[in-house]
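Wed. Picked up where I left off yesterday with BLNK protein. The coffee machine is broken again, so keeping this brief.
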Amino acid sequence: DAGVHSKAWYAATCDRKMAEDALYRSNKDGSFLIRKSSGQDAQQPYTLVVFYNRRVYNIPIRFIESTRQYALGREKSGEERFDSVAEIVENHQRTSLVLIDSQNNTKDSTKLRHIVRVS
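Structure written out below (tokens, as returned):
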């Protein structure tokens, strides 16, 4: 269990558009929620959705079968791995999360500051 179901930041029934709309409405840097990934892929079960600098980032959360851990984004050497999705959130409430804009090739960073609930 990823430790998501009882969490305020987990939007169980939320799709990508609903998540993005809710974050744009919040309009606060560091607003976030976690939703199920659109693809329903066991290797990428969830998506971390973060608002920063008037943009919404959808960051895949990967499940690593061999270690039964979770990691953010595409696989990279020396990546941080976590035992649950909740640990990813707790970690990035304390330490900044790097946001990569692949279209403009820019990097930003923010902490996860404001839980957004989808209504």
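Quick read: The chain is about 20% helix and 40% strand.
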